[in-house]
Amino acid sequence: MLNLSASTTINRPVELVFDKLANDFEHTYPQYASLNFSIEKITEGPVAVGSRFIEKAPKYGRQEVNFKKKGEGKRIELGPLEPDLQREIIEQVIEVTGYDLNRSFSIKMSQPEGTGFLVFKFKKAGEGTALTLLAQLNLTGSKPLQRFIYRLLLALFGPKSFKEMLEKIKGLVEAA
Question: Which residue pairs, CB below 8 angstroms and at least 24 apart, start in 170-176?
């Protein structure tokens, strides 16, 4: 299991931040989810617990990975995708699992390789909003494969890029 968390303060009221990230999820999510191609709501009505979306994103799973030493640690360098792999698209179902108006919003992302969870927590912070983003990833498959994939994902989407995603959210909401 891979767990990440990051927080930031957004200079907008809680109600606006929640509305943008939860109620307008279908339009906002593709703007900060870096691998996303498209997302489509497949349930009727407003966003609520049980709302479902289909996300389409590029499949990166077959890239060749080269480990290169740099200083004390290791740096992962991914080579370019083969042309045939650049066209491969994965679809995953995103389901709203929590919706507490102006307090929290959570989603579950499911695909054959595993399940991920994102929880957005909102709290008034002066004139703005303290936003905390929590993520959890659970992979299926053999233990050695899971350990390798977790290390790869942590290197690719670890704390630094997770915080960068949060900064994208901050910029997006503050520009509204």
Answer: 170/8, 170/10, 170/131, 172/20, 172/28, 172/31, 172/32, 173/10, 173/12, 173/16, 173/17, 173/20, 173/21, 174/10, 174/11, 174/12, 176/12, 176/16, 176/20
91: tokens are 């679809």
Q: What is the pLDDT of residues 24-70, one digit of tens each?
A: 999 998 888 766 667 899 999 999 999 999 987 766 543 333 344 44
On whether the CB atoms of residues 157 and 135 are closer than 8 A, the answer is no
E strand or H helix at 169: helix 159-175
pLDDT band at 16 (very low <50, low <70, confident <90, very high): very high
108 alpha carbon, distance to own chain's centre: 10
